[in-house]
Design a protein that fits this description.
- This protein is mainly beta.
- About 15% of the residues lie in helices and about 50% in strands.
- It has 1 helix and 6 strands.
- The protein has a 6-stranded antiparallel β-sheet with strand order 1-6-2-5-3-4, covered by helices on one side.
- The longest helix is centred in the first third of the chain and has 14 residues, at about 5-15.
Length: about 100
């Protein structure tokens, strides 16, 4: 997903979920080789920007896999417990747009 598309989609998606107010935050994360990062995002949505290579992202909304054994369909929107895995040996970067739901 491109940043531009995400920023246009966010207001619609937040409204679909029954909310009005939200904040947007950019996240640029480095995942060390052969490691996993867990993000608790239960009141948030995370959108993967572009297509980061060599990572696996899993959440309640589905899976994104850009390793050598990719999925037939990748999910770019994530929510709940988000698990980011770097199965390779080198560092990998991933960019997200984080949408924080404000009650």
């Amino acid at each position: 997903m491109t940043e531009s598309y995400i920023l246009h989609y966010v207001p619609v998606r937040v409204k679909e979920l029954g909310h009005e107010a939200y904040r947007v935050r950019y996240r640029d994360l480095v995942i060390e080789g052969d490691s996993t990062l867990i993000i608790p995002a239960f009141n948030e949505l995370y959108f993967i920007v572009d297509d980061p290579p060599g990572l696996i992202v899993e959440s309640a909304y589905g899976m994104y896999d850009s390793t050598d054994d990719p999925l037939a369909e990748n999910v770019h929107e994530h929510h709940g417990e988000i698990v980011i895995t770097n199965p390779g040996t080198g560092r990998r970067k991933i960019k997200f747009i984080q949408v924080i739901i404000v009650s």
